[in-house]
Structure formats: C-alpha cells, structure tokens
Write a structure and sequence with these properties.
By secondary structure, the chain is an alpha+beta fold. The chain is built from five helices and 16 strands. It has a single domain, classed as 2,3-Dihydroxybiphenyl 1,2-Dioxygenase, domain 1, CATH 3.10.180.10. Bound molecules: fe (ii) ion. InterPro entries: Glyas_Bleomycin-R_OHBP_Dase.
Length: 258
C-alpha cells in the first residue's frame, strides 16, 4: 500500500523566488539545489521540490498536516512570515470547527497552500518538523475532466480508497496521502480559484516492494527511472518509491481510515 506522499514537485518561474519564500520565510532546510531545481525537507518523511520552467504556472493545491495542539503556533509562525494568508468564506483566516482547524496561504508563484489539523489524528506518532510543525503532506489537488474516471484509476491501479464516492469533489486516500480529485469546473476554496490542472510530479512512498512490482505490471505506460516507478495519468506524473523507513502501520497508528 501507499503510505504517504514522499515528494511533491511543483512548477516555478523562479528558483530564487522559491528560496526567498521557502528557505528565508518558512525556514525549510534545502537538501538539494541546482540552477533549475530545488528540494526542501519539510517533514520527517517528505520533501517539497520545485522545478523552474519557462511556461505559465497553474497553481497547485497542497495541504500540510500539523498537530492539532500546535495548530495555533504553526498559524502564528505563518502570519509572521508575511506570506499572503487567505480569508475563509466567512471572513476569518482560521477555520476551527468540529475538531478540524485550517488556514490557507499562497506562495510567490501563487500555489494554494494550507495547514490543516484534525483532533482525531494521534500527534505522538510522527514528530512534527520545523517552525510550521509539519507531520506529513496530507493533500495534493488534481483537477480533472471526470472525477469518477480519475478516482477509479487511483482505486484500481494504486489501491487507493474513498469513504464515499462523489462526482465533483472526492478525497481518494491511501495512508496519509489524500488525493483531492476535483472537477476542473469546481473552483478551489476559499477564494474561488480556477482549478487549472497544475504541472506536478507526485511521488508516493510504500514500504512494500511487491506493491511496486505489481503496479509496474498493471499500468500500461509504467517505466523505471533510478529506482522509481514512473506512471502518468491524464496531465499528471506519478512516481512510486520504496520507502522502508515509514512503517505500514503508521497510518493506523495515526487513526487514519485507510
Ligand atoms: Fe485542502
């Protein structure tokens, strides 16, 4: 099974601009850097990467899970970062209800980012990292032409699951990884941002080598590239990586459903 997002690569028009936001304001350590690529360690088991390319940026949506008890510390750090925070639809910045807290913000390329916390998630399992206190990457958004078609592909090929099937907005989940599959016609909250499909390369981690081997046989266009199984679906590039350090029981220990 997929346990987590191990890397999410976003598109940028400026590596220098990315450094000013993610290194200088958000204090993420850089673990690799070249003239057109940069990678940050953002949680114990996840990295966030940026590739510079001369093409318009479509904003991606990425949400970071933080501990419920530390949410306001994380939000306070964010508000001091001078990044653009977004008002929720009710005019408040932080939404805090029914055991769920979240706050949206944007980076220099306009990517729509979010910190989110759930009371039911056990905070003692994964050590939060850095000033944003990130435990894991929870969400990556996938605007698609047909939610059912993309959802069923994630279910049948990547063994992801849903709590219920919906046709316009659907969480498709495996471990800590929540794919937010949305119709291209359904704008992102909280600012009714048009849901253009972003250029992302999403890497899933699994501690199960046989899962990767089976996947390689199941997907028509799968190919291997330096220990990663690479597959694509519609506009999206996926990679699957063998990550034995994150145990398969961690999602259950966190109280996550799948
Ligand atoms: Fe979200």
């Amino acid at each position: 099974m997929i346990t987590h997002y191990s890397d999410v690569q976003l598109h940028t028009l400026s590596i220098q601009g990315v450094k000013q936001i993610y290194k200088e304001r958000l204090h993420f350590p850089i673990i690799y850097e070249s003239s057109t690529f940069i990678r940050f360690q953002i949680s114990s088991y996840a990295t966030l990467s940026f590739k510079e390319a001369y093409t318009p940026v479509s904003p991606a949506h990425v949400a970071f899970q933080v501990p419920y008890s530390l949410f306001y510390e994380s939000a306070s750090f964010l508000s001091k970062s001078h990044l653009l925070l977004l008002q929720q639809e009710n005019g408040e910045y932080i939404d805090d209800e029914n055991g769920r807290r979240n706050l949206y913000f944007r980076d220099g390329d306009g990517h729509l980012l979010e910190i989110i916390a759930h009371e039911r998630v056990d905070e003692t399992v994964l050590k939060p990292l850095g000033d944003l206190r990130i435990m894991y990457i929870r969400e990556v958004g996938f605007p698609v032409a047909s939610v059912p078609v993309f959802r069923e592909w994630l279910k049948s090929k990547l063994s992801m699951k849903t709590e219920r099937d919906q046709d316009v907005f659907n969480f498709v989940i495996s471990g800590t990884a929540h794919a937010v599959v949305v119709s291209k016609t359904r704008p992102w909250i909280p600012i009714a941002l048009k849901a253009l499909p972003p250029r992302v390369v999403v890497t899933f981690g699994t501690p199960d080598l046989s899962f990767i081997k089976e996947l390689g046989k199941k997907v028509e266009n799968a190919k291997w590239d330096s220990h990663l199984l690479c597959i694509s679906k519609e506009e999206y590039a996926f990679q699957v990586q063998f990550t034995p350090d994150l145990h398969k029981d961690v999602p259950a220990q966190l109280n996550l459903p799948f």
